[in-house]
Design goal:
The structure is a single chain. With 447 residues, the protein is of the alpha/beta class. It has a domain at 8-43 and 109-175 and 290-433: FAD/NAD(P)-binding domain. It is 35% helix and 24% strand. The chain has an eight-stranded mixed β-sheet with strand order 5-4-13-14-15-12-17-16, with helices on both faces. Strands 7-2-1-11-19-18 form a six-stranded mixed β-sheet. The longest helix is centred in the last third of the chain and has 30 residues, at 357-386. The radius of gyration is 22 Å and the shape is globular.
């Protein structure tokens, strides 16, 4: 059943690639190998908020315990909102049930995902330079910068918004600047007053005009990983960005100029950033997005193809979840986790007589594309609204946490396993009806 015997090459060892590897191992795909361009597996950035929809998947892999060892636990609310200038409480969004959201350093999450993947299934220092279909070998030939090569029956591009696999598929489009940049750093609880430290043990959004500062309570005291992730979204013109990369370092003073008249808690955050970053620099990132891609894959034979997942095909701004106010939900990472799980399940359990690889990849796209397109669209719209100068006297009409929470339910309460199962059962029933009418006995999505 499925394509379990095919040789699969995964390009990119970030959160999306590692999530696919965990799912492949869990579902029984064994002939899989991951190639990472960097010399070692690492994640650059601050904390990430992994929400209920993705935690369901990670818990399916058996990663929940390891993740909770390094993440926050049992948050009192999903997010609390404060006025940027006065610090006044504006409202909150409650959690969406178990498993609750987990705030964790991106590198720590990658470590958790890396733990269950055998070393022999991973290679580093493999920057993809060429990807060609060989009629003679009936496989893809992958050439890396170090001049080594390998072959594969199926290639999965998990290599981010600047995907090399995407370029080799012939896409000519470029990412679109969103209008916002984000400053990222960490603050120690020891560098705050008791009152502010207590406040920032929650996920807090200091909401301002065209700007907001989000704090994530990363980690926990037991594992000595507890600290505050600072993610500050600021509207800035791209003309001021001089780096050739999408990620660089910038003076803390630049962030301070945006928030120098904000509430005392934010001033403590600035002071804490200065103490925690003695060189006076923190990460600064330009936020880009892609227009939804019409087709995510290409097949060269009935059993050979290339497929994109994660930011390589559905890059998502960190604003998803509300149409009137932005927030950091980590849905880019969460969508990559969902997609990795869905693809491995379909490749493993695809009914052998239900068609070729194109049919399987089309089914995967049909499951994932409507959801990721909607995530991308609403994230982009929320970011645009965040960049607009809405008068404060209009906030009461535009900012309603209860309404926002209702609008987020479709993201958080999505049953990915059920969706995959129903699609596979439908395919199995189609096959059975064409033979003996006995439907869907063999389909078992591993949960």
């Amino acid at each position: 059943m499925g394509f379990s015997e095919k040789k699969i090459a995964v390009i990119g060892g970030g959160l999306g690639g590692m999530a696919f590897m965990n799912s492949a191992i869990h579902t029984g795909l064994r002939n899989v190998h991951l190639y990472e361009a960097a010399a070692e597996f690492t994640e650059v950035g601050a904390g990430v908020n992994i929400t209920k929809n993705a935690n369901r998947v990670l818990d399916t892999f058996g990663l929940g315990e390891d993740m909770l060892w390094r993440s926050s636990r049992n948050p009192p609310s999903y997010m609390e909102y404060r006025h940027y200038r006065t610090g006044e409480y504006l409202g909150q969004i409650d959690e969406f049930g178990d498993p609750k959201s987990r705030q964790i350093h991106r590198a720590h999450l990658l470590d958790v995902l890396r733990k269950k993947v055998p070393d022999e299934m991973l290679s580093t220092g493999k920057k993809l330079e060429a990807l060609e279909w060989s009629v003679e070998q009936n496989s893809y030939i992958l050439t890396f910068k170090d001049k080594t090569t390998t072959t594969a029956d199926i290639v999965i591009g998990c290599d981010g918004i600047k995907s090399a696999v995407r370029k080799h598929l012939g896409f000519k489009d470029s990412p679109i600047y969103s209008g916002q940049m984000v400053y990222r750093g960490y603050v120690s609880y020891d560098d705050l007053t008791a009152e502010t430290a207590e406040l920032l043990h929650k996920t807090v959004n200091f909401r301002g005009p065209q700007r907001h500062v989000l704090t994530l309570p990363i980690g926990n005291d037991e594992s000595k990983t507890s600290r505050i992730g600072i993610i500050a979204f600021m509207t800035e013109p791209l003309e001021g960005w001089t780096s050739e990369s999408w990620l660089d370092k910038a003076p803390i003073d630049d962030l301070y100029e945006h928030v120098k008249d904000w509430t005392g808690a934010v001033q403590e955050i600035i002071a804490g950033l200065r103490k925690g970053h003695p060189d006076g620099l923190i990460l600064k990132q330009t936020l880009y997005v892609r227009e939804p891609t019409e087709k995510w894959f290409r097949t060269d034979t009935a059993e050979n193809g290339i497929i994109l997942i994660g930011d390589s095909v559905h890059s998502t701004l960190p604003h998803q979840g509300m149409e009137t106010d932005p927030q950091k939900t980590g849905q880019g990472a969460c969508m990559a986790i969902e997609s990795g799980f869905a693809l491995s399940q379909i490749l493993q359990h695809w009914p052998s007589s239900s068609g070729d690889l194109q049919s399987a990849l089309q089914c995967f796209q049909d499951i994932r594309k409507p959801r990721t397109d909607k995530i991308t669209k609403t994230s982009y719209e929320a970011g645009k609204i965040a960049s607009c100068a809405i008068p404060e006297e209009m906030w009461i009409d535009t900012f309603k946490p209860d309404v926002i929470r209702d609008r987020m339910k479709w993201v958080m309460e999505y049953d990915l396993l059920g969706d995959i199962r129903s699609k596979l059962i439908s395919k199995e029933q189609e096959r059975s009806e064409s033979y003996d009418g006995d439907g869907a006995k063999g389909v078992e999505v591993r949960a």
